């Protein structure tokens, strides 16, 4: 898959807490933009509180990833 051809969803809010997720890719509209989340591994426990309709649509914020 060519990541440069994909465009991230423009969702600047965390789907769990509603706060800013600081996703550089969502802000810039390109997955080629470096983002803090690239270095983070997201496990199933972190994704559990994300509503089903929001999964895969927006990044979690650092605070919710650390819970």
Walk me through the structure.
- With 67 residues, the protein is mainly alpha-helical.
- It has one domain (3-65).
- 19% of the residues lie in helices and 0% in strands.
- It has 3 helices and no strands.
Structural class: mainly alpha
User: Beta-strand percentage?
Assistant: under 5%
How far the N terminus sits from the C terminus, by CA atoms, comes to 31 Å
pLDDT averaged residue by residue = 84
Task: Tell how many strands the DSSP assignment holds.
Answer: 0
Taken in chain order, the helices and strands follow as HHH
Tell me the overall shape.
globular
- Helix content percent band: 10-25%
- Contiguous runs where pLDDT drops below 50 for at least 5 residues: none
Number of domains: 1
Radius of gyration from CA coordinates: 12 Å
Name its key features:
67 residues, mainly alpha, globular
Describe the secondary structure blueprint for this structure:
Elements: H1 24-28, H2 44-47, H3 62-65
